[in-house]
């Protein structure tokens, strides 16, 4: 077994972070306000599975579910999330063949051998507590399709409508998770769709009766009988922005597999900014990678997190604690490759942050008239507050950098202040 766990003294030495993101006027952010997450797949299958699972760093298979669970270096994973400035960590509780990374009375009774001795989820909760990073648990209510025939028979996967035994089983498993971790978990990300074997309304009730405030997110769909938010799980060129949460791998696989980098940190940074400005966006983007047992990652992962975190930190005021801007609107489906700029705004609506992602050749940038009719009175660069010349007329908004300033190749943020009373209520 690979020795890991919570390293003594690590939590005590970890600098505390505010629960609310920079710029948020007070309360911890809602899912609608989140912009950046880390999505970690770390999984053991235990039977043949066409897509594979987490191996050891030398490429050899992990010997058992307990070896995988004991091998997760929780402090290292949380530190990676902090480094990239993630607001939430989305973690796979179980995936193929439903091998859970926590002790489970339900699984021990109904699917013997499918739960770990170590409570990885509890260790994650304790490690994340001082950071303010929210925990979202990945759960798969239709994973019976990966079971052996014997396990499928045990839990009624193939019984036929109304699949009473399967729904009894999967709701008991969900109820156990929510009761065990309660409001220490922010929400649940539901994978696998909601096929006929799953009663979506019952599943929602099972969660909400135990945690009414939980965020409920569905992969590749948004069935309101079960969830409140939708998510996508694939991002390829031209990298369209979306109103749903985007979950995207930075390598060629959702988990550690020896893959090469597929999306670099600068592209990831610009896409993170794009998502923050897409009209109606919830959850931003969750960049996905997974560790090997023992606190090791594919070679590109740590540099990715470091570079992304540096760029995000540079514009944090204009990214966290903001909402999509109603003056310069970016629509769902807008490709990153076609975007010259996107805009976010403060939650009060009095400050617009213009993110110039494709700078013009000259120092001047001409924008259309604000879609909501607001009037701007001042402009300056984010960071050093360098002056930006501002003019507004019927043709639009005209901005010009001073001779001492230049466009940043990734994101120049111009802070625009609105005249009092000129910003219409958006109802958000």
Gist of the model:
The protein is built from ten helices and 16 strands. With 428 residues, the protein is an alpha/beta fold.
- Mean pLDDT comes to 92
Query: Would you list the SSEs in sequence order as H and E?
Result: HEHHEHHEHHEHEEEHEHEEEEEEEE
Cα distance spanning the termini: 51 Å
- What is the CATH top level name of the largest domain? Alpha Beta
Q: What's the CATH superfamily of the largest domain, by name?
A: Glycosidases
Total individual domains = 2
The number of distinct β-strands equals 16
Helix content: 10-25%
Overall spatial form: elongated
> What structural class should be given to the helix and strand makeup?
alpha/beta
Q: Treating each run of at least 4 consecutive H or I residues as one helix, how many helices?
A: 10
The strands making up the biggest β-sheet line up spatially as 1-2-3-4-5-6-7-8
Strand content: 15-25%
Low-confidence stretches: 1-26
The appropriate CATH architecture of the largest domain is Alpha-Beta Barrel
Q: What is the CATH topology classification name of the largest domain?
A: TIM Barrel
Largest sheet: 8 strands, parallel, barrel
Computed CA radius of gyration, to the nearest angstrom: 23 Å
Describe this protein's structure.
Strand 4 (about 185-190), helix 8 (about 200-210) and strand 5 form a beta-alpha-beta unit. This protein has helices at about 10-15, 65-70, 75-85, 105-110, 120-130, 150-155, 165-180, 200-210, 265-275, 300-315, and strands at about 35-40, 90, 135-140, 185-190, 215-220, 230, 245-250, 285-290, 320-325, 340-345, 350-355, 365, 375-380, 390-395, 395-400, 410-420. The protein is built from 10 helices and 16 strands. Helix 9 crosses helix 10 (about 300-315). The protein is elongated, with a radius of gyration of 23 Å. The protein has about 425 residues and is α/β, with parallel strands linked by helices. The protein has an 8-stranded parallel β-barrel with strand order 1-2-3-4-5-6-7-8. A 5-stranded antiparallel sheet has the order 9-10-11-16-13. Strands 12-15-14 form a 3-stranded antiparallel sheet, with no helix packed on it. The chain folds into 2 domains: about 30-315, TIM Barrel; about 325-420, Immunoglobulin-like.
């Amino acid at each position: 077994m690979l020795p890991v766990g919570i390293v003594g003294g690590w939590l005590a030495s970890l600098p505390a972070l505010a629960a609310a993101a920079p710029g948020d006027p007070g309360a911890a952010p809602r899912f609608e306000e989140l912009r950046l997450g880390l999505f970690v797949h770390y999984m053991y299958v235990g039977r043949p599975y066409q897509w594979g699972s987490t191996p050891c760093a030398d490429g050899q298979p992990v010997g058992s579910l307990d070896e995988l669970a004991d091998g997760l270096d929780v402090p290292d994973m949380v530190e990676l999330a902090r480094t990239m400035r993630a607001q939430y960590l989305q973690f796979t509780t179980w995936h193929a063949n439903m091998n859970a990374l926590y002790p489970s009375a339900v699984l021990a009774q109904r699917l013997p051998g499918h739960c770990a001795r170590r409570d990885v989820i509890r260790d994650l909760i304790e490690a994340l507590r001082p950071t303010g990073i929210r925990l979202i648990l990945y759960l798969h209510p239709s994973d019976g399709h990966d079971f052996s025939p014997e396990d499928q028979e045990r839990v009624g996967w193939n019984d036929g409508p109304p699949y009473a035994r399967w729904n009894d089983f999967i709701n008991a498993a969900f109820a156990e998770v929510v009761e065990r971790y309660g409001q220490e978990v922010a929400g649940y990300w539901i994978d696998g769709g909601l096929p006929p074997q799953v009663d979506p309304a019952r599943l929602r009730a099972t969660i909400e009766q135990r945690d009414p405030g939980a965020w409920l997110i569905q992969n590749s769909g948004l069935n309101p009988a079960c969830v409140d938010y939708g998510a996508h799980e694939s991002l390829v060129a031209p990298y369209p922005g979306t109103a749903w949460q985007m979950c995207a791998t930075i390598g060629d696989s959702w988990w550690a597999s020896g893959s090469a980098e597929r999306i670099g940190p600068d592209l990831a940074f610009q896409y993170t900014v794009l998502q923050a400005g897409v009209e109606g966006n919830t959850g931003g983007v969750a960049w996905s990678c997974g560790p090997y047992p023992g606190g090791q990652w594919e070679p590109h992962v740590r540099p990715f997190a470091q570079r992304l975190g540096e760029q995000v930190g540079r514009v944090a005021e204009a990214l966290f604690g903001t909402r999509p801007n109603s003056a310069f609107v970016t629509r769902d489906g807008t490709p990153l490759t076609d975007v010259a700029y996107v805009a976010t705004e403060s939650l009060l609506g009095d400050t617009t942050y213009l993110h110039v992602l494709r700078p013009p050749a000259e120092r001047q940038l001409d924008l259309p008239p604000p879609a909501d009719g607001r009037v701007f009175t001042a402009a300056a660069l984010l960071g050093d507050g360098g002056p930006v010349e501002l003019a507004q007329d019927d043709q639009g908004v005209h901005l010009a950098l001073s001779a001492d300033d230049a466009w940043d190749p990734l994101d120049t943020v111009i802070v625009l202040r609105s005249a009092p009373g000129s910003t219409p209520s958006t109802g958000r």
